[in-house]
Amino acid sequence: MRTATSLLVFLIGCTSDNISSDEFLAALVNAECEQAFACKSTFPATSEVSFDDLFGTDEGSCRSTLADYYDNAAISAAIKAGHIAYDGKDGASCVNGLSAPDCESYWQYGLDYPDACFTALTGQVDEGGDCTIDFECAGEMYCDAATCVGP
Questions:
Q1: 3-class SS at 13?
Q2: Can you give the residue range of the structural domain that contains 103?
Q3: What is the pTM assigned to this prediction?
Q4: Of 1, 6, 10, 35, which is most buried with the most CB atoms under 10 A?
Q5: Angle, helices 21-38/72-81, rounded to nearest 10 degrees
C-alpha cells in the first residue's frame, strides 16, 4: 500500500488546472508503474506473460518502458505539426482525478481514468492519413505501416 499512498501524494501535488503534455505523460507513466508495483504480489498467476515481462523488474525499468510507449518527443512533434490536439486543462483534470483501485480491480481494468484522460490527447489524422504513432490517429484508429487504420 506504500506505493498507492505515494501515488496519491504525487497526484495531490499536481493540482494545477493546466499542465504541459510532458507533465501529463510523465504523470500517466508514474501512476501506472506505481500501481503495478503496489499490486505486484497479486499479479494473476493465470497470466500468459510474467509480471517482469510486462512491467520490468523495478519501477525504474517500468517507467523507461512506458516512457518509450508515451514517446514525449514524437508526441510533442505531432502536437506542433497539428496531428495531435493537446488540452492542458483536460490533462490536469485527468492527472488530478486519477485513482488507484484495489489490486483485483487494477488487474482486471487498470487504473481508474477520469473522462478527461481520453480527451487530453486527441488524434487529428483521419483514416488513410500518414502517421508515426498511434496517438495521431483520430478516434479508435491506430498507426499501422505509417497509415491510420480502423480498429
A1: coil
A2: 2-118
A3: 0.82
A4: 35
A5: 150
